[in-house]
Amino acid sequence: MNFNDFNFNPDLYEGLMAMGYKSATPIQEQAIPVILDNHDLIACAQTGTGKTASYLLPVMDKIMKAKDRHNNTLILAPTRELAQQIDLQVEALAYFTNISSLAVYGGGDGIAYEQQKRSMRDGVDVIIATPGRLMAHLSSGVLKLEHLQHLILDEADRMLDMGFYDDIIRIISYLPKKRQTLLFSATMAPKIRTMAGKILHEPQQITISIAKPAEGINQQAYLIHDQQKQALLTDIFKDGTYKSSIIFVSTKDKVKALYKAFRGLGIKAEAFHSDLGQKEREDILLAFKNRRLPILIGTDVLSRGIDVEGIDLVINYDVPGDPADYVHRIGRTARASTKGTAITLVNGRDKRKFDNIEKLIEKEVPRMTLPEHISAMEITHVEEKRPHQNNGKKKVWHKKKPKPSNPN
Known about the structure:
Elements: H1 10-18, H2 26-36, E1 41-44, H3 51-63, E2 73-76, H4 80-93, E3 101-104, H5 110-122, E4 126-129, H6 131-140, E5 150-153, H7 156-161, H8 165-173, E6 180-185, H9 190-199, E7 204-207, E8 217-223, H10 226-237, E9 245-248, H11 252-265, E10 270-272, H12 278-289, E11 295-298, H13 301-305, E12 313-316, H14 323-330, E13 340-346, H15 351-361, H16 372-375, E14 382-385, E15 396-399
Parallel strand pairs: 1-6, 1-7, 2-4, 2-5, 3-4, 5-6, 8-13, 9-11, 9-12, 10-11, 12-13
Antiparallel strand pairs: 14-15
Domain Helicase C-terminal: 228-378
GO molecular function, one term: helicase activity
Family: Belongs to the DEAD box helicase family.
């Protein structure tokens, strides 16, 4: 379907043509008419399917026709990175229009907070916000949303996973009952449907089937012990084959530990985590996007909050617990019909998780052979011995003799 078929405002259409939009993706083709017809909507679609434009374009077209545009549209996003990314897309699409937008998130200084307050008090067309920071502005009484026309929840499943349910419900209590509500989620878990039943009115439903990883991704897996992982990464990066890489790990502490190990090995990388200041995070992302930083280490926040072209390698240092997160992670590479590599390191504990991933993607990922010098590494196993009926005494830690390193 061609974008010309939607009869958007000419200035908005000029903006999307300038951005290189051609034919609509499946989620855009299905969602845009529903939104233009003023229906509430539940849409299940992953990152990389064009879902952001699927709600921005029709809402922006409606804003240009609206009489009252004071804080017309509110978009809730789980992370500051996604809020910033949506804000940039609004700015790009609105280049030839007079639509205004504001990204509202925490982590800045008092000056940023006051600037946000002033902009929202004066009124903007589109507010893109994380729930916690928006709730702070609403509680202060400065932000008024009685004229709001559109509420959009982007990555609703991630917001609930991050514990924002109560904030979302409280935010909605400040909104007019008569509004259009759009909920976008990568998964449609029962908790999403429960929330949708509370906040949407007779919604239309669209489900874009779970996207399989792009054909251009060369997926690989290593069966490996944790103590071998850093040695393998050193091998992967030593010859400079990969120019732009993301390494996903399971926790913030592991992000910091791997960054410290890389620094000791002289491998240029940066850690991306919530303990960094807002300016630090923005500088790191800018350096990565501009190819001045070759390796970024982070948690799953990056899998949905970053959209950078030209990433040629994604490494799952830890196997994600949710199979859908695997698709999100490796989807950072091989975008726009390019090619890329995705390597997953699978220890003994994570084999079942990886089996579930292969069931989801309906494909067996090739197992790679470890380099001989890594396979020959001596592995020390430390395991916790369950205490017997020992009257509450401390657990006993038992060190076993080294075993051969093959985890199969």
